[in-house]
Design a protein that fits this description.
The chain has helices spanning 17-26, 47-59, 81-97, 117-136, 149-158, 170-175, 180-187, 219-228, 245-260, and strands at residues 5-9, 31-35, 63-68, 102-105, 139-142, 165-168, 191-196, 198-201, 207-210, 234-237. By secondary structure, it is of the alpha/beta class. Helix 3 packs parallel to helix 4. It has an eight-stranded parallel beta barrel, surrounded by six helices.
Length: 263
């Protein structure tokens, strides 16, 4: 299997940036994904600060894998939408300036009716962001929110003014009743990043995040599909719940490495 690149989403560490960088290196990551809304704000980072960040990463032999820009409301919610779009565009500009090609984030659940005002607004916003991506050289990759592969494919077909990627979340798909392998098979050319976490559906049909390897994601099959699709992005360890997020992310990276090595 081609060499895989592993990053850690440092926001889950709940540590200062300097400490997060050290922690990411200690768990076997070779890259980091930083939250550029809450963890590292571009407007508060001077040129000296940028150089210092790059030096810190270099000392630990880490790369900037991607940035995350979380929003509090969906991109089809008109309330304060201009501010959210401006913030996302700023994140893409910062991403390019730091040599990072991908910014991930959620857009909200895709509306069911493609002819609804909410769906049309979402399409317009994503086309606007895609045009901006063309100008700045960094791409927005959406993280699904309980969306079916059909809904995702339909949305991608409506965004034609520039690039738009997919941040594949296998655990999220499992927890919402989806199929990560089928989603990748259908949208492989859109996948720019893959989250390493696991999940399952409990007896009540509710989604539950669990340590990687204890859920329902069939990682060996998914890794084979990534290789077949010539995926060259980052695998990003994340952990939204649990009492030992750092330990779980470390074990997740080791687990995936072992599968990739045929162990």
């Amino acid at each position: 299997m081609a060499s895989l690149r592993f990053a850690a989403a440092t926001r889950h560490f709940a540590q200062p940036i300097r400490q997060s960088i050290d922690t990411a290196a200690s768990i076997g990551a070779t890259g980091v994904q930083l939250d550029v809304r809450n963890e590292l704000k571009p407007t508060e980072l001077s040129e000296t600060g940028r150089r210092h960040l790059i030096r810190q990463l270099g000392e630990q032999r880490l790369e900037l894998a991607s940035f995350e820009y979380p929003t509090r409301r969906a991109l089809h919610d008109s309330s304060q939408l201009d501010a959210r779009v401006a913030g996302l565009k700023g994140a893409l500009e910062f991403s390019y300036s730091m040599g990072v090609k991908v910014v991930v984030g959620r857009v909200g659940r895709i509306p069911d009716d493609p002819e609804s005002p909410a769906y049309r607004l979402l399409s317009e916003v994503l086309n606007d962001i895609a045009r901006h991506s063309n100008r700045v050289g960094a791409t927005f990759a959406i993280t699904p929110s309980s969306d079916s592969v059909e809904a995702l494919r339909g949305l991608f077909e409506r965004v034609t003014d520039g690039p738009l990627g997919l941040n594949l979340d296998p655990a999220g798909l499992i927890m919402s009743g989806g199929d990560p392998v089928e989603t990748y098979r259908t949208l492989y050319d859109r996948v720019l990043s893959v989250q390493i976490r696991d999940g399952l559906r409990d007896v009540d049909g509710q989604g539950v995040e669990v340590p990687l390897g204890r859920g329902e994601v069939v990682w060996d099959e998914l890794l084979a599909m990534l290789e077949e699709g010539a995926f060259r992005g980052w695998l990003v360890a994340t952990r939204s719940s649990g009492d030992d997020k750092v330990g779980d992310m470390s074990r997740a990276i080791r687990y995936i490495r072992a599968i990739a090595a045929g162990e």
